[in-house]
Amino acid sequence: MSTMNLEMLFSPKSVAIIGASDSTSKIGGRPISYLQKFHYNGQIIPINPKYQNIGSLKCYPNLQSVPGDIEAAIVAVPSHKVLLELQNCAAKGIKAVIVFSSGFAETGTDEGKAMQTQIKQLSQKSGMRILGPNCLGIINFMEGFTGTFSTSLPRIDNFQNAKRSAFITQSGAFGIMIHALFYGEGQGFGYFVNTANEVDVQIADCISYFVEKDLVDVLAIYCEGVRDKSRFISALTKAREKRIPIVAAKVGVSELGGGAANLHTGAIAGSDEVYSAIFKQYGVVRAVDTEAVFDFVTLASIGRFPKGRRIAIITNSGGAGVFITDKCVEYGLDVPKLPVLIRAELDKILPSFGSSMNPVDCTGQLINEPELLERALSLLAEAENIDGIIVFIGLMDGYEDTFIATLQKVLQKTDKYLALSWMAPPAEAVEKARKVGIPTLTDPARMVRTIQMLVEYNESIESTTEALKSNSHRNNGKIVNIRDRIEAYRKSGRYILSEYESKAILKDYGIPVPISGLATGVDEAVKIAEEIGYPIVMKIESPDILHKTDAKCVKIGIKDSSEFSKSFSGILENAFSYKPDANVLGVNIQEQVSDSVEIIVGIKQDPVFGPCIMLGMGGIMVELIKDVSLRVLPITHADVKKMISELKTSKLLYGYRGKPAADIDALVDVIMRFGEMALDFEDLVSEMEINPLFVTQHGVMAGDAIISLKE
Amino acid sequence: MSTMNLEMLFSPKSVAIIGASDSTSKIGGRPISYLQKFHYNGQIIPINPKYQNIGSLKCYPNLQSVPGDIEAAIVAVPSHKVLLELQNCAAKGIKAVIVFSSGFAETGTDEGKAMQTQIKQLSQKSGMRILGPNCLGIINFMEGFTGTFSTSLPRIDNFQNAKRSAFITQSGAFGIMIHALFYGEGQGFGYFVNTANEVDVQIADCISYFVEKDLVDVLAIYCEGVRDKSRFISALTKAREKRIPIVAAKVGVSELGGGAANLHTGAIAGSDEVYSAIFKQYGVVRAVDTEAVFDFVTLASIGRFPKGRRIAIITNSGGAGVFITDKCVEYGLDVPKLPVLIRAELDKILPSFGSSMNPVDCTGQLINEPELLERALSLLAEAENIDGIIVFIGLMDGYEDTFIATLQKVLQKTDKYLALSWMAPPAEAVEKARKVGIPTLTDPARMVRTIQMLVEYNESIESTTEALKSNSHRNNGKIVNIRDRIEAYRKSGRYILSEYESKAILKDYGIPVPISGLATGVDEAVKIAEEIGYPIVMKIESPDILHKTDAKCVKIGIKDSSEFSKSFSGILENAFSYKPDANVLGVNIQEQVSDSVEIIVGIKQDPVFGPCIMLGMGGIMVELIKDVSLRVLPITHADVKKMISELKTSKLLYGYRGKPAADIDALVDVIMRFGEMALDFEDLVSEMEINPLFVTQHGVMAGDAIISLKE
């Protein structure tokens, strides 16, 4: 029940302010002033033994002396008094508390951490919801509850502009600056919440709350680190089901940044690539900066998205049209030619020095003939090869009412996505356009970047009809057998399985491996080789030699029995000179796979999100150009296909330089199986890797593999 | 004399308006109104037989009837009357003319092009400077000359904010929108000029003018295509010598964009990568969009630059510090730890919940203790491992005067770069800060992007002390010999030289090639091979077979004479089956180079900038991940080193995976020679390529080469 009682946090009927003050220079004074200024229509109950009254409000010495029930409280007392006050809140039956006070885990001190743990325990035991500590609280302009001490509120005089949108941020100070930025730009979030130290209420809970209650059309989050995987994923899934777009700014891209984030709020930072993966998988669009958050929220609020990447551009400047086209191509959007009939109609109305190609250039002629815009736009709205329209206007003082009316009209007639970029606009034009529901930005480059984000969002929600299957094989008899074998390795103290052992397990799990046999002598080796057929590969089999190539214990391309004896003994010699006390189980004689593309597939554990699957191009590509793609398990077929396409050298798989195309279906199947296996044995296996995975024209095979177990 | 008489274009003492009107709805009316509004202190001379007077100004029927000399004219008459009016101007002795009229090459019609050619010829013959046609003219707020018909001028009420900066744009409408954007943001360009169709005055001339006259501290250009290489490069060189930074927005990144740009102004668009190369070589910073232009101009106007990549960050929000650190790492900037002593001093003054690491977090404590900023900043200014300081403040209404005074003081004390990012700032704070010379933006991500641009600019001007040597070998006897040979090939109708011929020329030019010999029979081949020493490589020698590998006419790794006969005849057979009528000169017997990294070096011709040199990683990297770097010739050693470092897989050269490092000095030397050779024979050679160029631990060798000649 992660959203239990959250309505009493966001919109309580009564709120006690513990540590209330009559001065707005104190954090216990500001919420009282704000609640009154913004016409909170619940009951404000100041608590402070020092005052009889605060303004016109009666002030109580303590909670016990307040008659009747109280839904929520704000705690603004020094850190060492917080626990006691929270206990009083619980005793009074208060359902939700915002803790402004700082001095907890964010200080990095043992004392701070210990106090925070006590608060967490109280919350768990009592069921009382706690936001914070160390938080800036809540600003709810939709239902009128401003439980915050932010100094930004006095300047917000346009809170009527609040939209059906929410901003959920772990960072308090930076978050409130972003919130203020939105109102400074003439629009704003309906809801703001700073979860800060997250002893109880997390980002995920807030997402779930806003989605379940149908309070918003778009969500923005500012995230330093997620604490609870399943709550987070469940929240994202709910939002996706209801088609409520989420844009996320996430810090910690750099190790440096990551380090600092750790220090800053004590959040457990998973590696940044894992967050990118989770966002991709659950339809969250990642914003590169705060302006991208602003732009996305602004353009997504219309509730429709471009259904594809095909964009029409219409401008009052040919130069701007070229610039926007450039940007579209940079962001992977198409600017297709318009259908012949539509071009013909456009040519009839456009001036001779205009252009009916895409981009459509109405030229400065719009000054003399403003109705041209509506006529041209109406034609574009009919083009069947267009998913979204960017209207670019620059300057044009005095035409704002005309053009805004035009866009409103066209928006009603079409279900295509349509947005307005008005550069160096007349005063108030942008605000007016936004007010009547036209998605509007000023800068054309940012417009294109945001359209790309909307397209990405639409693709991600459209593509995921496939249900996620986790643990699909668990009740299979073979799996039980594998489980028993893995358990046996662990009981014998073996935590790293050899190639032979690892591949045997993969094979039983349905992942093809090359034909091979383990030989302890040359004669046996020759016999195995002749059964397999030449050429063959020889490799040492020893749990103590993991890097077989480095140890010179791999010999490929053995064409016949002539070199056999020398190769066999050479490998053994190299093994013992590499590691004299190695436990050598024999030499692996293996079918040689030719004409393949080599891939790496691996499983790593993320501290927050658990097992993740990595796909990489083999050979030197993984290391040299970091040619990898990552997802959090479980994954869908669509995810795997996307992963493959994300490889920078994926061309190698599709029939590069006249070679036949690799068997992508088989590759997808093996990656899926490998992922399922990681989940089936999540409790036992820590890391797994197939390297190389040979991908041929017909099927794939695990050339080498390693499985490491949890100790 | 590309800047001859340009002062009469930008700041004439008298200006005739040909096609003058009393109405600002006409393009001949607006400049009169603007010149009066913005207090032009020269003489305004309206020309139009229809009027006796325009306002208080006497209007003349024609130029001849005006007494005395006139320096400049504006032509605002229909296109077919323009030539006649220009002839009248020349006859009157007018030195500079702005042609507003459109209807020329930009229409794409033969008639338009022909009229434009006539204007061009008139300009060349008369020496009269002509801006345009099809141009928006000039806005000079520094000396007060507004020779434009832009409708954006009436809204500019803050032209006193004009800076010592110029914006030179080929695009008129889009350019004037960018100009308006700057004034909309509370600052603006001192000079605006739209070169448009460029019959005479080009972007390069304007750059030269502003630089030579010392009129600006920073230049911005909006460029669709350069017409004259040497004027452009000469202008950039002048700017670099005077350390006047130039930021360029260039469209045509995409082929699509490029196509549209061609149509739009008829500019000859070189390929976009060539522009990137030219910009890098001559210290021009390329802006990705118009906001980046704005940001660069804003932050560069202070006249100092970060001397390195080491950035200190100081904030009033820990979250913002993390975010800015992330962005620094993304943009390749360092955020080093501060020196111990400075940290110790910071710890004394910062609150316990702040941070003296880099980023330095002053926290919300700045509200209570604003003087903290000056104390902390003064310490940062002393850190010897810091090149630039980003001060980030969010919100803080009421503190603007305090903080601005603080930054002014610190800027005076230090020669480090220092800039202010004030997010969601108090009203007017940013304008005030800029007014007193503090480089100020609001958005922190854009701040970091711009700091990176400044660092890049500084690096480019610092690194190019080396003089450019072009044609260095021309007077060398050997070169004469090579020239004679190339001429002989051309005379015999041979425009593509074979591998053997090409490598012979390279060798004579001082570029090492593997030892080799041309054999016409097996016995001869064996003899050559034994002189060279095994292993050897065999390749067909035929000017008709350029793709030897595709034709199966290459055999590598021949270890002894046993396979000789079979290989030799096999190659000949394959050659004739590939191309029955091929002119086969023999079989090349060549030393096999082992343990090398394979590189590609090529020369291509750009229609505007001439010979360009391309460096690429060999094997599949060039094609698969486009791993190439490009420069326009001539190049310096520093350029070549930068090119090598720009390769995504350059690691392969520096001792990858335990291999010895390749001989970079020899590689640089060969690339330099290859470039010099391309210039020495620029008149004869069209394309050249060495592929592969073997780079070994000791020296490099051209494994294969091709030279194609101009017909």
Structure explained in plain terms:
The structure is a homodimer of 711-residue chains. Chain A is of the alpha/beta class and 711 residues long. The first copy, chain A, folds into four domains: 6-300, 3-Layer(aba) Sandwich (Rossmann fold); 311-463, Succinyl-CoA synthetase domains (Rossmann fold), CATH 3.40.50; 477-591, Dna Ligase, domain 1, CATH 3.30.1490; 597-709, ATP-grasp fold, B domain (D-amino Acid Aminotransferase, Chain A, domain 1). Chain A contains 24 helices and 30 strands. In chain A, the strands form six sheets. Chain A has a seven-stranded mixed beta sheet, sandwiched between helices. In chain A, strands 20, 25, 26, 27, 28, 29 and 30 form a seven-stranded antiparallel beta sheet that branches. In chain A, α5 (173-184) links the parallel β10 (162-169) and β11. In chain A, α6 runs parallel beside α7. Residues 256-269 of chain A have low confidence and may be disordered. Chains A and B meet through α5, α8, α11 and α17 of A and α5, α8, α11 and α16 of B.
List descriptors.
homodimer, 711 residues, alpha/beta, Rossmann fold, 4 domains, 7-stranded mixed β-sheet, 7-stranded antiparallel β-sheet
Oligomer: homodimer
State the CATH superfamily name of the largest domain in chain A.
NAD(P)-binding Rossmann-like Domain
In the CATH hierarchy, what is the architecture of the largest domain in chain A at level 2? 3-Layer(aba) Sandwich
Q: Which chains make the largest contact?
A: A-B, 80 and 80 residues
Alpha-carbon distance between the termini of chain A?
A: 34 Å
Strand order across the largest sheet of chain A: 9-8-11-10-12-13-14
Q: Could you tell me the strand content of chain A as a percent range?
A: 15-25%
The helix content of chain A, as a percent range, equals: 25-40%
